[in-house]
Amino acid sequence: MTEGHPCFVATNGRIGFSVDDLRAYAPESGATFRYVWVAARRAHTRLDLGAGRTEAQHWELELGAAGRARLHARLHDLGLDPADYVLLPVHPWQFRHRVAVSFAPDIARRDLVVLGEGPGAWQPQQSIRTAFDVGHPERSYIKTALSIQNMGFLRGLSPAYMRATPAINDWVAVQVRGDARLAELGFDVLREHAAIGYTGDAYHRAEASSDQQKMLAALWRESPIARLGEREEPDDRLMTMAALLHRDARGASMAAALIEDSGLKPRAWLGEYLRAYLLPVLHCLEVHELAFMPHGENIILRLREGRVTGVFMKDIGEEAAVIGDRELDEDISRMRHVIDDDEAAQLIFTDVFGGVLRHLAGVLHADGVLTDTAFWEVVSQVVAEQEARGEAEGVSRRRRLDLRVPRYAHSCLNRLQLRNTRHMVDLADASGSLIHAGELENPIAG
């Protein structure tokens, strides 16, 4: 995969990477790397864990006893007590270009102790700052701060913002995994079950917020490999949904190849895909008032012989939102962004219809696999399935979205990037940050 978000003109910027960095750390290079591990003084560091996981269990699962012992041995060699520190992985680029320079005083005070490379061979995913342990696929993904400018903003991680991340993910997982309809559709989430951030630096003592406060943090996200094992579906393959828009060097379409491999008629294949992707997103909005950011990179498809059998949704802590006035614990209340039904429907129009499906429709139409008209007919039929599910089937909806309006507002993503090349959307007021210009015709109106 070499493509970025299909709606943005400026996508794979990677401003800050050299040519050598691109070879070493860009996902399309296929290379692996090792994280640099530091020990962060516990008094200035916070490790938050999801329900049912202790700190000892976390390190046992994610580092292994031998890996943790090797890192602790380096602290013992320096005459330091491992109990006074928390282990923290750092991307090697981030260590060389940010931590070693900006946190030099912290290293001198031994508030941060550099332990060197840790275990594992980690391969970057399309989101670039998230990596997967290819030698231990059951272990969690690691997502770290990576202060390069990519897709419109610096890829930092805020220690303060991440404190609620495991709790938010736990709450979302309870809603999703307790819903029989979502299980029937093969929908699941990948929980971010641990987050760590260091705040003992000078930047966190300053009153003004800055990007420098987002340079030293990490989180762990469930591996989909482990979730496949729980479902006893070892034959399933996994693929980023963004790949449905991919063409190889010869111009061949990934989506067309999957349809051919499946042996299904294109309309049937598309219907299965939409029931796995679109229906759960709609169901979560209407039944749970739960919104995700369902673009291609945030969805991992489960495939069996070319057919989409389900999806995993990720990036929950930063981008999931409760769009109604539901009761939430104080520690996860930042999730609440109350919007009306029209704006809730706009999420589907912008993020799904405009951000994913119109591009897939174009690929299949250009390849002669399925005409644009037939494509949107199938979308309309799948939406009708959600519309038909009513109280008689025991479905209690908090919202009923009208996806049949003739026209809807055009949300201009590129204008957000051009307005502010470092910070596109204010997470505290995402709706107020958007820019609209004119309207678009609804392809399933009527």
Task: Please render the helix and strand layout as text.
Blueprint (H helix, E strand, L loop, with lengths): L18 H7 L10 E6 L3 E5 L5 H8 L1 H14 L7 E6 L1 H11 L1 H5 L3 E6 L4 E3 L5 E4 L7 E4 L1 E5 L2 E3 L3 H4 L2 H13 L2 H5 L2 E3 L2 E7 L18 E5 L2 H7 L6 E4 L13 H9 L3 H23 L1 E2 L7 E6 L2 E7 L2 H4 L1 E2 L18 H26 L5 H17 L18 E5 L1 H7 L10 H4 L2 E6 L5
Parallel strand pairs: 10-16
Antiparallel strand pairs: 1-3, 1-4, 2-11, 5-6, 6-7, 7-12, 8-9, 11-12, 13-15, 14-17, 15-16, 18-19
Helix pairs in contact: 11-14
The whole-number mean of residue pLDDT values reads 91
Number of strands: 19
Major sheet size, sense and barrel closure: 6 strands, antiparallel
**How many domains, in number, for the residues?**
2
Task: Report the sheet-strand fraction.
Answer: 15-25%
Query: Biggest sheet: strands side by side, in what order?
Result: 2-11-12-7-6-5
Q: What's the architecture of the largest domain in CATH terms? A: Orthogonal Bundle
CATH topology of the largest domain: Transferase(Phosphotransferase), domain 1
Uncertain regions: pLDDT < 50 for 5+ in a row? none
- Output the CATH class name of the largest domain: Mainly Alpha
Task: Give the N-to-C terminal Cα separation.
Answer: 37 Å
Descriptive terms for the model:
single chain; 446 residues; alpha+beta; Transferase(Phosphotransferase), domain 1; 2 domains; 6-stranded antiparallel beta sheet; 4-stranded mixed beta sheet; 16 helices; 37% helix; 20% strand
Can you walk me through this structure?
- The chain has 446 residues and is α+β, with helices and mostly antiparallel strands.
- The protein has two domains: 19-159 and 191-221, no CATH class; 235-441, Transferase(Phosphotransferase), domain 1.
- The protein contains 16 helices and 19 strands.
- The protein has helices spanning 19-25, 55-62, 64-77, 92-102, 104-108, 159-162, 165-177, 180-184, 224-230, 254-262, 266-288, 316-319, 341-366, 372-388, 413-419, 430-433; strands spanning 36-41, 45-49, 85-90, 112-117, 122-124, 130-133, 141-144, 146-150, 153-155, 187-189, 192-198, 217-221, 237-240, 290-291, 299-304, 307-313, 321-322, 407-411, 436-441.
- Strands 2-11-12-7-6-5 form a six-stranded antiparallel β-sheet.
- A hairpin with a 7-residue loop joins strand 6 (130-133) and strand 7 (141-144).
- Helix 11 (266-288) packs parallel to helix 14.
